[in-house]
Design brief:
285 residues, TIM Barrel
Length: 285
């Protein structure tokens, strides 16, 4: 008998974007700070230079990114672990004061493990608690740490009323998840490693990776953008303040924004705005 391992497949179809736009661009930042390194290896709590790589995102990167977004009059979505909210409250407050969207990204940045359902629940609820406790915010968007997911997590997001998720790589158009029991799940805003700064711009002594030059990264981001626009899709750029906040990478983001400005039919929107537009169209159809 054939193994049925996945849920029903939602249709892939273009959305009608507001104001006659041809595509949507969504700037997202995973504001992990040190949490990512601590989750990777508990001993990193004591390794100050390793931690400082994450701290750069909260200390320098986020400030530079908020300055650029303000200059460009753009709003972005910041997927933020509860740990970052607890430990870098002032920087999270800055992004909220600038009118950006605060979205959920776990608590301690543990990757969702289908064999650890209790940890999945704890990550979700501790993250929600941190945002409520500090800012009275109830986020509607979620990106799992590591951009990985599982059936149980999608069900838990649905139970908590999350409007959207953003980590699947199976489309260039938003779609509605169908849970394994056939119920409707959250809306998906798909992304892809080709548009994730982590794959081009970070390295570490114990996990060395090549750093890619600006022209290389900008070329990939522009080429994806040109075709996604032709297809009428959604362009979700995944960035990290500890990566894109580096000097040379801020220039890549600035140049990429300038490139997209050459087109007059782009809708720049937060994850929440795009998911809400999708939900409205769904009701009308
Ligand atoms: Zn992350």
């Amino acid at each position: 008998m054939a193994e049925r391992w996945q849920t029903a497949e939602p249709d892939s179809k273009p959305m009608r974007w507001p104001n006659g736009a041809r595509c949507a661009v969504c700037f997202t930042f995973d504001f992990d700070a040190e949490s990512l390194w601590i989750a990777k290896e508990p001993k990193n709590r004591e390794l100050l230079a390793t931690l400082s790589q994450g701290r750069y995102g909260a200390k320098v990167g986020i400030v530079k990114i908020l300055e650029l977004l303000k200059r460009e009059e753009l709003k972005a979505t910041f997927f933020t672990p509860g740990w970052t909210v607890d430990n870098h409250r002032d920087k999270v407050e800055m992004l909220l004061n600038d009118g950006h969207e605060l979205a959920h990204h776990g608590y301690m940045h543990y990757w969702p493990d289908p064999d650890k359902p209790d940890q999945i629940i704890e990550e979700l609820d501790r993250g929600l608690d941190a945002m409520k406790r500090h800012f009275g915010v109830r986020p509607v968007g979620y990106r799992p740490p590591g951009s990985e997911s599982c059936h149980f997590l999608l069900e838990q997001l649905t139970a908590r009323g999350f409007l959207y998720n953003s980590c699947f790589k199976d489309d260039v158009h938003p779609y509605r998840h169908i849970l394994r029991d056939g119920r409707r799940g959250p809306i998906e805003l798909p992304e892809h490693p080709s548009m994730d700064d982590w794959n081009y711009g970070t390295s570490h002594l114990r996990f060395p990776k090549p750093i890619f030059p600006s022209a290389h990264v900008l070329g990939i981001w522009q080429d994806e953008f040109k075709m996604i626009r032709e297809w009428g899709g959604i362009y979700v750029l995944v960035m990290h303040p500890q990566v894109t906040g580096r000097p040379m990478r801020m220039a890549i983001l600035r140049d990429f924004i300038a490139f997209t400005r050459n087109y007059s039919d782009v809708w720049y929107a937060t994850g929440r705005e795009i998911a809400e537009a999708f939900a409205t169209q769904e009701r009308l159809n």
